[in-house]
Amino acid sequence: MFRGSIPALVTPFRDEAFDEAAFRDFVEWQIAEGSHGLVPCGTTGESATLSGEEQAQVIRACVEQAAGRVPVIAGCGSNSTAIVKAHMKAAEEAGADAALVVLPYYNRPNQEGLYAHYAALAEASSLPIVVYNVPGRTVTDVTPETLGRLASLSTVVGIKDASGDMTRVTAHRALCGRDFVQLSGNDDMALSFLAMGGIGTISVTANVAPRLFADFHNAFLSGDRDKAMALQDRLFPLHKALFSDASPGPAKYALSRVRPGFSTELRLPMTPPSEASRKAVDAALEHAGLV
Length: 291
Hints:
Layout: E1 4-7, E2 13-14, E3 17-18, H1 20-32, H2 52-66, E4 73-75, H3 81-94, E5 98-102, H4 111-124, E6 129-133, H5 135-138, H6 144-151, E7 156-161, H7 167-176, E8 181-184, H8 190-196, E9 200-203, H9 205-208, H10 210-221, H11 225-241, H12 249-258, H13 275-288
Parallel strand pairs: 1-9, 4-5, 5-6, 6-7, 7-8, 8-9
Antiparallel strand pairs: 2-3
């Protein structure tokens, strides 16, 4: 259902408001550059700072602009099951193809609580669910065994795995089945993740280098490992630089370099990246041949 390079899209702001025209242009560029799917309202899209109305507007704009050319996985996560249900309802009404649902953060539910959370969502909506496991942000971790239980629910179709544990790709395949969609949540580990059996990445780097990251996935998934390795080496400094300060500050700065005029505006509590971070991004863009 989902594969390849799938950017977790930044949300452009202008004078503190969502810049829908700039966002639609950005979506169009992503598709033209070869991205295999799109994620609006993920962490990189500053979803935590969006109102419910804004979130629905961003998802709707993405779906309309994509117009069925690539799948749209709408960010719908929250630490409240009721709020996720509302987000998923809005995403389904907008025409999204799936919902990306992060593990509940701050509450720190146990494994039974995690299962109950996703089971309630699956019961409330027919929208396919991609579980997002990012323990570094949520301080919660879904075990492979619990994910195996979740995979038995008909609408839980995959995982964005940012645990950093490569062995889980094999464990998930054994417990969730070979058709379960496994997407990396770490750009710098994408090559290893694919080698272990994953089929794509929900990516920050793809915001800035969509063609290169799509080509990287196309090469690996078609068996051209030498080309994939060359692209990995070309992109690796950028993977690191985009996390040299709080994301998505470095990504928005990088976009302003490759797409002049792209807004670098962030919403508090996010602030612009440091000078050191900007220098790291500049060097990485040069290394990748993007400037």
